[in-house]
Design goal:
mainly alpha, Rna Polymerase Sigma Factor, Chain: A, Arc Repressor Mutant, subunit A, 2 domains
């Protein structure tokens, strides 16, 4: 097996720098069949194996997000018939370190609704909530920009309808 073009120390720094992205993806895609820690290890492994393919055409964070989401989606495909989402603990995770009770309830309600979405739609809305531009979302998800715009419009409409 060919070794990646970075050292273990550099890889550890990369993981630390992008831990928020990795944790967020794990948080939203973990299931009983693919627990949070197992999914995180899967993402780490895919990042390690794929770092040699990163050409620098996009930001490193965009590439990390893409690998993380693709790893999660592959795990879901492997366990599709057995999926059950796990309940979320918003402020216990590093999703929001400065939550008050009202914000915690609002976030929980939002994330509960997001958890009802299809896996790809969930990834798109989470990227949008992280303020990624449409072009980067398209690149991460491997879909055309116009498809991102259309899907986001439909997802937002679905979220509004599900919240009522």
């Amino acid at each position: 097996m060919k070794s990646p073009p970075i050292t273990e120390r550099e890889f550890t720094a990369l993981i630390k720098e992008h831990s928020r992205i990795i944790n967020k993806v794990c948080f939203f895609y973990a299931t009983d069949k693919m627990p949070y820690d197992d999914l995180r290890q899967e993402i780490y492994m895919n990042l390690w194996l794929g770092i040699g393919q990163f050409r620098g055409d996009s930001k490193l964070s965009t590439w990390v997000y893409r690998v993380a989401v693709n790893s999660a989606l592959m795990a879901i495909r492997n366990y599709r018939s057995k999926l059950n989402t796990l309940p979320i603990d918003l402020c216990g995770n590093d999703m929001s370190s400065e939550c008050d009770d009202a914000q915690r309830e609002q976030l929980k309600a939002l994330y509960d609704i997001i958890n009802t979405l299809r896996p790809i739609d969930k990834a798109i809305i989470l990227l949008w909530l992280d303020e990624y531009p449409y072009d980067e979302i398209a690149e991460i998800m491997g879909i055309p920009r116009n498809t991102v715009a259309t899907k986001l419009h439909r997802i937002k409409h679905q979220l509004v309808n599900n919240s009522q």
